[in-house]
Amino acid sequence: MLLVSEYPHNLTIVPGSLALTCGVLMATDTTISREHFLLPWTVQEREDPVLVFERGEGVYFFDHEGKRYLDLLAQIFNCNLGHGNRHVIEAIHRQAEKACCVSPSVLTKERAEMAQALVDKTPGDLNTCFFVNSGSEADDQAFIIARMVTGRKKIMSKYRSYHGTTYGTLGVGGDPRRMAVDPGPPGTVRFFGPYCYRCDFGMTYPDCQLHCIDALERQLELENPATVAAIVVEPVTGAAGGFPLPDGYLTRLRDICDRYGILLIADEVITGFGRTGAWFGVDHEKVVPDIMVLAKGLTSGYVPMGAVVVRDHIADYFESRMLPIGSTYAAHPLACAAAQACIEEYERQNLIPHAKRMGEVLFKKLRELAEHHPRVGDVRGKGLLACLELVQGKDDPRPLVPANTDSPIPMQLRRRLWEEGLFALARASLLMLAPPLIIEEEHINEAVEKLDKVLDWVDQLSP
User: Fold this and answer.
1) What is the DSSP secondary-structure string of 27-90?
2) Are strands 26-27 and 30-31 parallel, antiparallel or unpaired?
3) Does residue 384 sit in helix, strand or coil?
4) Cβ count within 10 A of residue 445
């Protein structure tokens, strides 16, 4: 257990109640506590929620004491437009004045217009949307649709992937956090995807000639491809480690799926809407998946929403068959308003090419930073989605925090980031960055200067 003495700011944890009182947590005379709710992805008694969000503005947000933080994670990979975008806020307001609650089985003009705006951006014949409330739900529904359309039961996914937090999605994904629900749903099959820094096959890219995709096809043959409904991949792995698919991988995966009649699901929950420097991650190789899963940047996080977008042949399947899925808040009118406004803002601000340019700046500076810090083993990602993998040292590339290790380092690292006025994701040996797409070079310079100080602290940690 982490000791209170490890943290500054006069933090007091009240045993039993989980309530917190803290100098920086006091807004006037009111104690801000978490006594009556559970925090996600954490052991409750170890959590240290000193950071209290008060308001956001552009690429920054402020705590209740007025301290400013550069949001290097877009909150949770989703606030692509930054905080306080007036166009989106006003669109939500206008819709709220008109209607806040509409049955998902009733058509509205706004829902139809938003769907049209969305499929105008998706590649190929991805022309039909099924709306849900989150990325997790969207992946879950995509798996159901794939099984129904193909009549097959198996879903294949990469180790070190993340596809959501429902039983069906956490169990299918390869993120180590899935172990909490193991064994997952029947029909889950995992394979080794590209991890070029630590190749599972002991090979080196590009000399390997994408050995990992050859290995996947051999595994598929042994698995019996006639039993596999879909293969799901993130074009760049998000929360599970920032692994980009090497050039050519997605094209070859598309060929394999076509050869065996398997549906290709692109999980674009994080990579969609400019995050990788293209509208969607699959656009880099001009690949059209059978199903595309969207959320996060769809509404820039302003209102919860997810979407499953399918090709014509899948939509046609349900013209004469029951689609036995849905939810109360699907295509919620406020979410539709937010989504359409977001698409308009991506275009108006020309943010997709801007994200590509800023991504090039970010990676150049991160790689320069890594040269001066022996504990940065790898810098990877694409566009404005970056991961620093922390290691024991330049001559010892073992992870700084070994897999499945109960270590205080990630929480301590997060605290150091906060002290420098930075907000990012520190988990195991990973430091993940995904700033709002509106970030400018001056903000990147500020981030790198502060990251330099944080990494100085990392370099001094005892092995």
Assistant:
1) ETTEEP--TT-PPTTS-GGG------EEEEEBTEEEETT--EEEESSHHHHT-TT-BT-HHHHH
2) antiparallel
3) coil
4) 12
CA–chain centroid gap for 360, Å, is 20
pLDDT digits (tens, 9 = 90+) for 353-371: 999 999 999 999 999 999 9
Residue 459: half-sphere exposure toward Cβ, Cα within 13 Å: 15
Q: Which amino acid is at 46?
A: R
Domains of the chain listed by start with CATH number: 1-38 (no CATH), 51-83+351-459 (3.90.1150.10), 86-348 (3.40.640.10)
Average predicted confidence (pLDDT) for the chain: 91
Tokens of 358: 């800023």
Residue pLDDT, tens place only, 227-277: 999 999 999 999 899 999 999 999 999 999 999 999 999 999 999 999 999
Q: Which H or E run includes 215? A: helix 211-223
Residue pair 109/303 in contact (Cβ under 8 Å)? The answer is no
pTM of the model: 0.92
Kindly tell me if the per-residue pLDDT of 15 is higher than 60.
no
